[in-house]
Amino acid sequence: AREGLFADLDVGFLYTPKVTGDNLWRWFKFAQPSFSFVVKNLVDADPVTNLGLVSENSGDANKLQRRIDIGSKWKLPDFWVFDPKLAWDIRNILHENWSLRKGNHLGFEMYWKMYSWWKGYWSVGLNQWAPDDFQNLTLGFGARFAWFQLDLATWQEYVGTEDIDIRSRRYMVELSLDF
After folding, report:
1. For the chain, where are the E strands, in sequence order?
2. For the range 74-79, what are the long-range contacts, defined as Cβ-Cβ under 8 Å and sequence gap of 24 or more?
3. How far apart are alpha carbons 40 and 100 in whole angstroms?
4. Pairing, β 67-75 against β 82-93
């Protein structure tokens, strides 16, 4: 195992334009957009030291690799008890194993609220998708009733390389008491 202690810096920017009837964003009066830009591992230095916690013979860890994430979220008009949002992002640009397919993510969420103690969400998305591939469907549901919380989710991701198509589907059920 390789190990090391790193010193690094992540920087992110979030821009939410003011949508008014007399500016460039007036076309989006029914959808409130937000845009993000994040640079992770900006310093991208070698490890400061090897602590030797795993083994005295462990080698130094690899660099963390600088990565860039860009994305946007669109808050759509509320209707009835629903608060819908649409999001799209491209993650881990500059990583050595990055591809547009692995970095591309699209999602839609509908939060709902009956009362402050009874609320939840529905979600659907495409994880690591390309225009010709809609197999990595993600689905989610969450509900909170008083102190009880239920979350259900399934997602699939590519774990292989561009040449070897290996996918991993996951399922999650979480039950909790929120005090």
Report:
1. 2-3, 11-15, 32-40, 59-60, 67-75, 82-93, 104-115, 118-127, 137-145, 148-158, 167-177
2. 74/28, 74/31, 74/32, 74/33, 74/34, 75/31, 75/32, 75/33, 75/34, 76/30, 76/31, 77/30, 77/31
3. 18
4. antiparallel
Nearest to 116 by CA among 140, 145, 141, 142: 145
**Residue found by looking up tokens 């495409």 in the block:** 126
CA distance 92 to 88: 14
| Contact between 118 and 105 (Cβ < 8 Å) | no
Nearby residues of 155 by Cβ (< 8 Å), 6 or more positions away: 125, 127, 136, 138, 139, 169, 170
Q: Write the pLDDT tens digit of every residue in 34-51.
A: 999 999 998 887 777 777
Structure tokens at 70: 């860009």
Q: For position 132, what pLDDT does the model report?
A: 67
Tell me the per-residue pLDDT of 75-131, one tens digit each, with 9 for 90 and over.
888 888 889 999 999 999 998 888 888 888 999 999 999 888 899 999 999 888 766
State the Cα–Cα distance between residues 97 and 62, nearest whole angstrom.
14
SS3 169: strand
Cα 107–chain centre separation? 9
Length of the chain: 179
Q: What is the pTM of this model?
A: 0.75
